[in-house]
Amino acid sequence: MGVDIESLSEATSGAIGSLLSTTILYPLDTCKTKYQAEVRAHGQQKYRKLSDVLWEAISNGQVLSLYQGLGTKNLQSFISQFVYFYGYSYFKRLYLKRSGNKSIGAKANLIIAATAGACTAIITQPLDTASSRMQTSAFGKSKGLWKTLTEGTWSDAFDGLGISLLLTSNPAIQYTVFDQLKRRMLKGKQNKAGGTSPQALSAFVAFVLGAVSKSIATVLTYPAIRCKVMIQAADPNENGTEKTQPRSRKTLAGVVYAIWKREGVLGFFKGLHAQILKTVLSSALLLMIKEKIAATTWVLILAIRRYLFLTRGRLKSA
Description:
The chain is mostly helical. The protein has helices spanning 5-24, 26-37, 50-59, 70-99, 106-136, 145-150, 161-166, 169-192, 203-232, 252-263, 272-317. Helix 4 (70-99) packs antiparallel against helix 5 and helix 8 runs antiparallel to helix 9. The longest helix has 46 residues, at 272-317.
């Protein structure tokens, strides 16, 4: 079976969009992650608001440490978005071909998106765990990717996998809402244009639709998001230079109990505003960039394919 060029184009443009949006917003992501990972103990709290994390980095002369783990995060984002967009695009096209329908309903779209998300979570979980530990380490104390992954057992690298699988509902909800809104938007433009459908959304419209779809998904899944960050976060005693005790295994039940006991119900939504700010901007930028470079990516892939085809033809005739 040949390579699905359309799915490959979707995956490549989505991965590039993820890479750029992750890099642009990474300092905000680091502040957000460290803020979420802290649980109030004995009435004491190191970070009372999101800006406290930023001021800590500035006051300690560790501004560049806001980018600790950027390489790992970019690698994880690129691979995850490539796998997700390829799987999502491929399975959607396969469903339409086999069902004979001209469009895909919301229910089928949700199932396809969740399936693609589950495959992505399993493949990229070690990188996701490593990037979270690197971000939540003390400023200037972050370890490299390999050392972070190998300091415990390989099962530790898959901490939070269960919640990651549960959180496949987040991008599933997001992209389902985005696709439905996009289809209605393009259909409305098609009717106004007299039957000629535009090839892509404008950058501004894609940004707005991305923000709306991600906001809905984030609010619905936030308690699980915070629990996942706490499970994957670096232990406080790992931030020193001395040899530490073996890493204690965190469980979902233990994290839920700690939040409930120390912060109450509202603790499950600590940092929600920061999560919405970061993820909405990130996803909106991702989808905006993807929409704008999709056509260019398609042309480049076709050009490369044609070049390889002609080169192979010349080698055979030589």
